[in-house]
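Folding follows sequence. Below is one example:
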Amino acid sequence: MYRRNLPHWHPAGRPLFITWRLAGTYPKKHRSGPAWLWRPEIAGCVLDCLREHAGSRYELHAFVVMPDHVHVLLTPSAEPSVITRAIKGKSSRIANTILQRTGSPFWQDESFDHWIRSRAEFEETRSYIEANPVRAGLVSAPEEWLYSSAAVRSFTG
């Protein structure tokens, strides 16, 4: 267990639901701030960074890259803070280069995480992640959102 602004408790070998947001954005009610993840080259870079250590640092079960935040469901084999630092660090450097930005944070520093306590919660969380673009009104079916595990599964069968 460690603490920054939010407490983080990660039992070894348990799946984690992790969310992080773009700097300057706020959940639900406010809907303000940047939405750089709409840009295909930036969303694609985040996907590449998610996949880079899948299989070595973590097992990636589900993910979605939304216009202003990312949700992942993974089982870590490395420290979760190392995983998020690697994904957020590399993707922010690439995205800021694309956006021609320097000296400004791309991601909020803090991430939200929750460890999964049961198989039922695992499946509910996977569904929640993959249905996020539908709930946001971006697509009518999860597999239509290109930046998600639902879309990847629909292409690979």
Notes: The radius of gyration is 15 Å. The chain has one domain: 2-118. The mean pLDDT is 89.
